[in-house]
Design goal:
- The chain is of the alpha+beta class and 291 residues long.
- It has one domain: Putative cyclase (Glucose Oxidase, domain 1), CATH 3.50.30.
- It has 8 helices and 18 strands.
- The two termini are 20 Å apart.
């Protein structure tokens, strides 16, 4: 399938090959519930809050109808969301090597980056911001690493490496191949639902070798049931930098993959429609897996 102009995402097209992934028609919602006080990546990210803006009992100009509406305030990178390619920059020296004192640069095209200073304004991001991301209609696979290890949930701060990825594939008989979205289950989503700060502070997720292994097999989108896809600490975002800045491959974070795993549904049609939030670095989503 040809790629869109948005990184490695394929041009959205419902092909006979994709339709053939639908065997039972079962639809799985992979998003989490948003609620007051839900965990965020840190204090700089604002959690979900909701305030009534209009109540059914308020005076109405559309009597006898009585409307209600609300205002919701929340940072983009909270709850189930997809990262725009402009979300993370890498500070680089003049030769393109990572350098804490270097210039922040973001993905432009395969093997190319641009200074992030050229891509932002008071109205937000202009380069590869989320409204430019196409709808996603692609083959998805689930890699249940928790099941591989014989547990419902991996311990906090567990690192999932390339060997784990290959072992999970072998256990399930799962091939990745070109233009495949890979969703990795660690079981950690239960910690988010419980408000456990370990979900934020001791994240179980991919290391760089796992990300590289997936890209080598043709992966064009990655997601996980943790807050950052990758393991943290450390906090240098090495997987984010490798995928977003260097590979043009974006992330879906805070997925609920437990229902898919319980059904042993390892291959499906994946549909994601990012919101057209002009200038934003991501979008809240409710991905659908159709098996």
């Amino acid at each position: 399938m040809p790629h869109s102009t948005y990184g490695q995402l394929p041009i959205p097209r419902l092909t006979p090959q994709l339709l053939s992934l639908v065997k039972t028609g079962e639809v799985y919602s992979l998003g989490v519930d948003f609620h007051e006080g839900m965990l965020t990546p840190g204090a700089v990210m604002k959690s979900y809050s909701i305030a009534p803006h209009l109540r059914h009992s308020d005076p109405s100009t559309i009597d006898p109808a009585a409307p209600a509406a609300e205002v919701i305030r929340m940072s983009i990178h909270v709850g189930t969301h997809i990262d725009a390619l402009c979300h993370i920059a890498e500070k680089q020296d003049a030769s393109g090597n990572p350098d804490p004192n270097g210039e922040p640069r973001i993905y432009a095209a395969a093997g190319e980056t641009i200074p992030s200073s050229q891509s932002a304004s008071s109205a937000g991001q202009r380069h590869l911001s989320i409204e430019q991301m196409p709808p996603i209609v692609t083959r998805g696979v689930l890699l249940d690493v928790a099941a591989l290890k014989g547990v419902d949930m991996l311990p906090p701060a567990t690192v999932v490496n390339a060997d784990d990825i290959l072992a999970a594939q072998a256990r399930q008989g799962t091939e990745i191949g070109a233009d495949t979205a890979v969703l990795v289950r660690t079981g950690s989503i239960a910690r988010l639902q419980a408000g456990d700060p370990a979900y934020r502070d001791a994240q179980t997720g991919l290391d760089l070798s796992a990300a590289q292994c997936l890209v080598e097999q043709g992966m064009t989108l990655v997601g996980a049931d943790n807050m950052a896809v990758e393991a943290m600490p450390p906090y240098d975002h090495s997987v984010h930098r490798f995928l977003l800045v260097h590979s043009g491959i974006t992330h879906i974070e805070n997925l609920n993959l437990d229902e898919l795993a319980a059904a042993r549904c390892y291959e499906f049609l994946l549909i994601i429609a990012p919101l057209k939030l002009t200038g934003a670095t991501g979008s809240w989503v409710n991905p659908l897996a159709i098996a």
